[in-house]
Amino acid sequence: MPHLGGILLALAVSQWRFVDALPRPQIGDYGEKSGPVGGVNPPTQITTTTSGNLRGNSSLLGGNAPLPNPNTADSAIVPNSQYVKGQNADAKLGLYLDFNSANPPQPIRGGRGATDSGPRTFDYEKLNPDLYAPPGTDAGDMPNLMWPMGLSHNRAGTGNNAGWARQENTAVLPAAVAMAGVDMRLSPNAYRELHWHTASEWGLVLKGCVRLAAVDEEGRSFVDDVCSGDVWFFPSGIPHSIQALEQGAEFLLVFDQGDFTEEGTFLVTELFLRNPISVLSKDLHAPVDAFNNLPKDQLYIFNGSPAPKNISEQNITSSAGSIHGNGSYTYHWSQQEPYSVPGGSVKIIDPITFPVAKKFSAALVTVQPGALREIHWHPTSDEWLFFLQGSGRVTVYGAPASSRTFDFTAGGVGYVPAGCEHYIENTGEEDLIFLEMLQADRFTDVSVAQWLALTPRQVVKDHLGLSDEVLDNLPKEKQRIVTGNPDLTALAEGGSAF
Ligand SMILES: *[C@@H]1O[C@H](CO)[C@@H](O)[C@H](O)[C@H]1NC(C)=O
Ligand SMILES: *[C@@H]1O[C@H](CO)[C@@H](O)[C@H](O)[C@H]1NC(C)=O
Ligand SMILES: *[C@@H]1O[C@H](CO)[C@@H](O)[C@H](O)[C@H]1NC(C)=O
Ligand SMILES: *[C@@H]1O[C@H](CO)[C@@H](O)[C@H](O)[C@H]1NC(C)=O
């Protein structure tokens, strides 16, 4: 075995060009405290022999052991702590704290909290300032409602660099019971193997193009090409394939089962591997040796031959014909112009225009810097959120008295249970783009501003003590998005939030 390392290294060097020769992450790269911690003082001595005991003994029990000296013990005092703009403002203002300029940030807001002496990894805290130093209005035990795909296990395809998939489901986000999501990558011409599942699948192409093929229970067939911004839908049980065209593809899948898993789909290869060959022979009227070249294992995601440019060559129909019109499994959503409002834009797709996708209602929302997807809730459905670009935060209020604020960046999944009030605020310097997905016949929400504007004024005044001036300003029409000050800490210096 002595040469194995050398052989592996030679193989690795022959396949990859190393950018740098860093052996492994260095202590301090992620900002961790590198001094003593938990009674260990790194770096520890490198030793070549074994010594010491795994356990202490009863002389160390309290009362037996000598008292420690607090003056010489490792101190928990954090010297020279830095604070960012807005950090000293009233915690109930809940200003967005940009921790990127603080090295390291401290979990303090308006006099609440205390410094952090570690252990810690600064990057998590900089990405999640509203978890680390929550707004003073956060309360109670709202469950976790956020899962970054960057923390998902990534399942590689079986072919050479063919692709991968990573998922969010109840295994990682237990509150997300009604929907699950998959982020899938296919290299040029690669396939997601022919398969079906018991969940219904709604897909949004994020990059590139794919060719889809499916057959329904009436024997009607379907082929179509979709590109970035287009949508498909396969009802539960409908067998389908997905092949990337020559630029490859990445797409988002949303399923109507929170516990859906990519590991749990029915696969055409497994179907052939799991049936007696005599029965396959009888069923397909093919000699037994016709099955000699079956794959030995499932293909899952694998490389394929290029799809013919002319899609009509792949259009095979029975007497039942093809799936088209209102039964179509695709919707070329990229060609739909968005509805624009001050502060951003919204595009809706739901069964009103894409009838096959029963119960799948979606909005693709763009929110400009400083603007807000207004405070609202969805009356009947849980909401599955996916962030495509930028950074934003969401506070979710749940009955009767709990709320929690989460920070999202591109690739993040969010979840809001039905009826829970929330907003989505752009906290970055670029447009925030996200998908809102519901299980509903049409995309609907209740706007708080509109609700109050259309409720008798005396009723609202008796409840909230708002002035006539504020009530005069409330919009009777639904805003969906409202503009705001891109300086998110302006209030701390006498400025305005809007
Ligand atoms: C028990 O532990 C103390 C402190 O580590 C050590 O000095 C002592 O020799 C130990 N006693 C026995 C009986 O091993
Ligand atoms: C496939 O053929 C059917 C007629 O059998 C036609 O209605 C349909 O438009 C064709 N689809 C494509 C993608 O060419
Ligand atoms: C595409 O293929 C169909 C069916 O094979 C054929 O009828 C048609 O002429 C082809 N179109 C082009 C542009 O080659
Ligand atoms: C789809 O259904 C709607 C509503 O029933 C109808 O107005 C429309 O013409 C149909 N479209 C197609 C392409 O069949």
UniProtKB/TrEMBL annotation:
Keywords: Manganese, Metal-binding, Signal. Residues 51-64 have a biased composition (Low complexity). Gene3D superfamilies: Jelly Rolls. Its cofactor is Mn(2+). The keyword Iron-sulfur does not apply. Residues 149-292, 331-472 form the Cupin type-1 domain. One of its GO terms (biological process) is oxalate metabolic process. Mn(2+) 2 binds at H376, H378, E383, H422. The active site is at E436 (proton donor). Residues 1-21 form the signal peptide. Residues 30-67 are annotated as: Disordered. NCBIfam families: bicupin_oxalic (TIGR03404). This is RmlC-like cupin domain-containing protein.
